[in-house]
Amino acid sequence: xxxxxxxxxxxxxxxxxxxxxxxxxxxxxxxxxxxxxxxxxxxxxxxxxxxxxxxxxxxxxxxxxxxxxxxxxxxxxxxxxxxxxxxxxxxxxxxxxxxxxxxxxxxxxxxxxxxxxxxxxxxxxxxxxxxxxxxxxxxxxxxxxxxxxxxxxxxxxxxxxxxxxxxxxxxxxxxxxxxxxxxxxxxxxxxxxxxxxxxxxxxxxxxxxxxxxxxxxxxxxxxxxxxxxxxxxxxxxxxxxxxxxxxxxxxxxxxxxxxxxxxxxxxxxxxxxxxxxxxxxxxxxxxxxxxxxxxxxxxxxxxxxxxxxxxxxxxxxxxxxxxxxxxxxxxxxxxxxxxxxxxxxxxxxxxxxxxxxxxxxxxxxxxxxxxxxxxxxxxxxxxxxxxxxxxxxxxxxxxxxxxxxxxxxxxxxxxxxxx
Amino acid sequence: xxxxxxxxxxxxxxxxxxxxxxxxxxxxxxxxxxxxxxxxxxxxxxxxxxxxxxxxxxxxxxxxxxxxxxxxxxxxxxxxxxxxxxxxxxxxxxxxxxxxxxxxxxxxxxxxxxxxxxxxxxxxxxxxxxxxxxxxxxxxxxxxxxxxxxxxxxxxxxxxxxxxxxxxxxxxxxxxxxxxxxxxxxxxxxxxxxxxxxxxxxxxxxxxxxxxxxxxxxxxxxxxxxxxxxxxxxxxxxxxxxxxxxxxxxxxxxxxxxxxxxxxxxxxxxxxxxxxxxxxxxxxxxxxxxxxxxxxxxxxxxxxxxxxxxxxxxxxxxxxxxxxxxxxxxxxxxxxxxxxxxxxxxxxxxxxxxxxxxxxxx
Lengths: 419, 362
Prior knowledge:
The structure holds two protein chains of two kinds.
Chain A: H1 2-13, H2 20-35, H3 41-52, E1 61-72, E2 78-85, E3 98-105, E4 108-115, H4 120-126, E5 128-134, H5 140-147, E6 155-157, E7 172-177, H6 181-189, E8 198-204, H7 215-222, E9 226-232, H8 233-236, H9 241-264, H10 271-275, E10 281-287, H11 288-300, E11 306-311, E12 322-328, E13 331-337, H12 341-347, E14 365-370, E15 373-375, E16 387-390, E17 394-396, E18 400-403, H13 409-418
Parallel strand pairs in A: 7-8, 7-10, 8-9, 10-11, 12-18
Antiparallel strand pairs in A: 1-2, 1-6, 2-5, 3-4, 3-6, 12-13, 14-16, 14-18, 15-17
Chain B: H1 6-26, H2 29-53, H3 60-86, H4 111-124, H5 155-164, H6 166-177, H7 195-220, H8 225-251, H9 269-278, E1 282-284, H10 287-292, H11 299-304, H12 313-326, E2 333-335, H13 336-349
Parallel strand pairs in B: 1-2
Helix pairs in contact in B: 1-9, 1-12, 2-3, 3-8, 4-6, 6-7, 7-8
């Protein structure tokens, strides 16, 4: 009994949570562990609750998939627009943020991160969200959503997150490429008034790949200070450095006029004028290479304020080493991996758990946060999102992020409490 | 080993790999639904069982029914759910807690400890003398490869006690192997877990379980404290008997083979497959019976494909059997009663110093 008390005490009072709420939460978890052998009531009751609510999943927020519309673009590209109705506990979002979408496909819970593309007002009025995504040639989820549009697929969304949001007190130059337009569309269509100029340069490949075609004329009409440049790269080519500089200087000029107009209109000049930033903010959203290139250009031009978000699958390696970042005991190690993952982790100086080293015992199972791996036994290639991998029979195909420590169920139950 | 050439072993491996791939391709929504259904039945039987224990106020038969339902719930939790989920058979679902990393089961043994001794040691070194401690659990002498000791004389009684306290045997298994409390440390054992962590997990999980069955639930039904306590005890014992019997029938039947460590060094995949087939035994029965055993009645298929959902094993039985016949590998299968009888025979036979020569020894 003494041992129990000690283990009870240590499991309640140890580690990070010193607060009273934390103690109660741990106590509650211990009670669940004793009475139900699970760490939460909801996860224990999930199979029973699902009798009444078939889409219920403990720790996940259910969302209703209202519709999937397809846009068949040029060059075999296709886009999907998902309309989702968020559940009661979804707290809302700031335009520009992204969220985790989990869809149950053939019994598998597949999770991917997508930017919200719809205006905030739409969420306030109807509690609906729109996610816009490009159908990826190797993307398991987008392919499936494309093929199975119309089926009632169980969907779940996580809380919105990310700091790629609009700074309204500054002028802005926005560069978007391809489906990188989605968070920017959410930002611009959520605007209710505009006091500083914004220039958007949106590059897309072929007229069929222009997203939100209906929105742009409306936005132009609503906001005189908003300049929208739609650039079909098939016709006009890629945005050049010179055009970028020109757009920047026009924006600065416009901003200067705007500020002096405000001054002459007698708006509390002086003090307020001091606090306004004259420097425009650069927003970049597109494929990794695109964002990286313009970030460098911005640096060269002396633009210090840049917000960027990039996406897309990294290039698959053909036998060459790929960068891996592995987290264990709170520390993260970056290294290059070639061939077997378990071996290269050990060579890098980490000590992952292992057992049989031939894919039987699941001792080396760990969480892959992102990246693709190949199963050396079956040849199966994983998708790029979060999933469990057996290190001893896997090799990295793309840039990889691994979490070697087991994430406790408690953490998951806790997040479900806060969302 | 056995009379297969290394080429034959390679083709055997290719065939079995293909069979696994074929089955894995079919795994999907149906398997997820099945697991969910078993979970539902498990939850319902446990709670109906616990409520019916209170029925002793009306009739002892209600109490007995409660005990049986509670035992059923525990058996489903341990065998069809726990054992299989902890093997990673359902990891493909990417479910937040029904996976081999997160799941915890209603048994005294800590899930992680069991995964190390069972998933790793037992499934990797199946029936290798000295490496697979599941062969006799360090308590029973089940082949002539082990030196006879005086205590083997009464090993049948040891077996009965082990069966009755089986969950504690399983919980203590890794600590015994690491000589945490008694005995001299063995140099050849590597462990990635410290003795203090082993102790913490052992006492933590064990005490939580004791607390649940013999304190919390009896106290919740206070005037019926002893009736509920007795019901829980009986349910635990029934579950222990059942799991021990199923497991013994899967590995200690008369014709099961044992192997020497030197024969298995740097073995090929085909050799490992062969060893799994020779080292396990099946028993037959209706579908509900398979479910109650967690499909360990298809122990051969389980040992060949420990990571495939167990629900698929019955459909693999004829296919594996056909492959075994083609390679003239003995396929050890029979009725439950017959297999169990040979287990008892084996325990009795090797309790004597010179056991009658056993033809099936490698």
